[in-house]
Design goal:
The complex is a heterodimer of chains A (351) and B (183).
Chain A lengths: L1 H16 L2 E3 L1 H6 L20 H17 L1 H5 L1 H18 L8 H28 L1 E5 L2 E5 L9 H22 L9 H18 L1 H15 L15 E3 L4 H37 L6 H6 L4 H24 L6 H31 L1
Antiparallel strand pairs in A: 2-3, 2-4
Chain B lengths: L1 H10 L3 H11 L3 H17 L10 H19 L23 E3 L4 H14 L4 H12 L4 H8 L3 H22 L12
Helix pairs in contact in B: 2-3, 2-4, 3-4, 6-8, 7-8
Classes of the chains: A mainly alpha (351), B mainly alpha (183).
């Protein structure tokens, strides 16, 4: 009975949809295909991929100048810049063209560099000294003061590698693997954010040392006078105390990086499997709600981190939560950016 | 101009069926017409990439499917809107530009029922059901159109029929058949 009803309704649907078929003249008369676009001559094609790099660097630099929080937590500045890029990409589809080979080259260069850079920094951290003077305290190599800070080095090396990879991709006549294009692009950003997040230990070391130096709690009582310089070796109790605090921050950055990196890998695997069947995971990530959601998460965590920093400056809060907010914010920004890249790839595949 | 003539010549024998297919896939006939127009624009722009003119029909249907899925993703929220209550009242049947075949208000209600049921299916199942049950395509041909295996098409057909059956049993179990049909 039901099957016959369905068959009957289908027959009615077929007749209904064909009962008013326009003639071919009427059909082709209404819409006309637009004229094909004339390709413009590209004068410096390698300049375009550098755009996002310049945007992130400029945004991070401006934010660091405007707000002290971004000096202490550079991970937040980059995460905010990435979130804004995702928002722009949502509105403006052709914000940046995909560069499969450039992304793979950048990932191949930047990930090892970040690994080596962090190992060196970690060695300094474990063997360095605590410098205390009238302006506060800082941890660093016992022998010489550093000219470039670790966040500065991370951003400079990232931008240099992105430019080098963009130029290399133009010189090498190979299109690259499209399935791993987006994961490679994400991986570079994830590693950059994780690298900056791992170096938060240095910032919190400075903050904790400054707090105990100026606060009459007793831990900083080893000082001789308020404005007299003092160097503590790595084996001192204060340095051990500071290092114990920094571990939690590094753990937050590592967890955030692992989650975002797993996201990038899952997109790559789903992209390969999608050649045989559609991927629900990629469909979910391409949902229009993902980008606003990720941007909201990034912005909310930025506000919370700022508030926490203000409370800490008033000696009323614990700064340990700032790394957690930075980790959540950077994860939200990466998810929004991944959604933007996937939606752009889908549009290009269908056009 | 030569390209336009070629496009017109290729489109003439198949456009009515392809337009019907686009309408079957859509929530309303007007949406189907929009979908078909968008597919025509895309087909016209990409006609130079068609190497074999005898493959024009599946090529055009493939474009209709692609546009349909693109529109589904683009307008996710539209699936939550109610279906139009009566889409046939303002049909341009009197226009000299249209061919009018046999049609009745009873059949319109049955067609609306079928369209409503089809919209409950996922896109892939809906395409398979429409192509197989209404358009009369073979499983192997649908597999080529949907770029999947024949067994996947069969699976979509079985699942689609099950969902349609469940939908009808829940909502239209007491509906009589159209005149001339016996249960």
């Amino acid at each position: 009975m039901i099957d016959k009803l369905i068959t009957s309704d289908f027959a009615a649907l077929a007749a209904d949809d064909r009962h008013a078929v326009p003639t071919l003249e009427a059909l082709l008369g209404a819409p006309r295909p637009s004229a094909p676009k004339v390709a413009r001559a590209k004068r410096a094609p390698w300049l375009l991929p550098i755009g996002p790099v310049v945007v992130v660097l400029a945004a991070a630099g401006v934010l660091r100048e405007v707000n002290q929080d971004f000096v202490d937590v550079p991970q937040l500045a980059v995460a905010l810049a990435v979130a804004v890029m995702a928002l722009i990409g949502l509105v403006y589809a052709d914000f940046a063209k995909p560069r499969p080979l450039a992304n793979l080259v950048a990932a191949g260069l930047f990930i090892p560099l970040a690994g080596v850079g962090f190992v060196i920094e970690w060695h300094h951290h474990m063997t360095g000294c605590l410098f205390i003077d009238g302006n506060g305290a800082s941890i660093g190599p016992c022998q010489a003061a550093r000219i470039v800070t670790t966040p500065g080095f991370a951003l400079i090396s990232w931008s240099a590698i992105m430019v080098a990879a963009a130029v290399a991709a133009r010189l090498i006549p190979w299109k690259g693997s499209s399935a791993w294009n987006i994961p490679a692009q994400l991986a570079v950003l994830v590693v950059l954010l994780t690298w900056l997040g791992l170096n938060l230990y240095e910032d919190i070391s400075i903050e904790v040392a400054r707090f105990h130096f100026t606060h009459p709690s007793g831990i900083g009582a080893e000082r001789w006078a308020p404005y007299q310089s003092r160097v503590l070796l790595g084996e001192s109790e204060l340095v051990k105390f500071i290092r114990a605090h920094s571990m939690e921050r590094m753990w937050d950055a590592l967890v955030s990086g692992a989650v975002s990196f797993a996201l990038a890998i899952s997109i790559g695997i789903s992209g390969i499997r999608e050649r045989n069947r559609p991927s629900r995971w990629l469909r979910l990530l391409e949902s229009p709600a993902i980008i606003p959601l990720g941007i909201t998460v990034a912005a909310a965590n930025l506000v919370l981190a700022t508030l926490q920093q203000r409370l800490f400056e008033l000696h009323r809060g614990d700064p340990d939560d700032i790394s957690w907010f930075a980790a959540c914010g950077s994860t939200g920004a990466i998810v929004a950016f991944a959604s933007m890249l996937l939606r752009r790839r889908r549009r290009e595949a269908l056009s | 101009m030569e390209g336009n003539e070629r496009f017109r010549a290729l489109l003439e024998p198949v456009y009515a069926g392809a337009l019907g297919f686009a309408r079957h896939l859509s929530r309303a006939r007007a949406d189907g017409d929009d979908l078909f127009h968008e597919a025509l624009i895309r087909a016209s722009a990409k006609l130079a990439t068609l190497r074999d003119d005898t493959a024009f029909k599946p090529w055009l249907y493939r474009i209709v499917i692609s546009v349909h899925r693109n529109r589904l993703r683009r307008a996710f929220w539209r699936r939550f809107l109610p279906l139009p209550e009566q889409v046939s009242s303002d049909e341009p049947a009197a226009s000299g530009n249209y061919r009018v075949s046999d049609w009745s208000p009873d059949a319109a209600e049955a067609a609306r029922r079928a369209r409503e049921a089809l919209t409950t299916l996922p896109a892939a199942q809906r395409e398979a059901i429409v192509l197989y049950e209404i358009e009369g395509w073979q499983v192997d041909e649908i597999a080529l159109l949907q770029r999947c295996s024949a067994s996947a098409v069969k699976s979509r057909l079985v699942r689609g029929r099950d969902r349609l059956r469940a939908y009808y049993e829940a909502r239209h179990a007491a509906v009589p058949l159209l005149s001339g049909e016996t249960p």
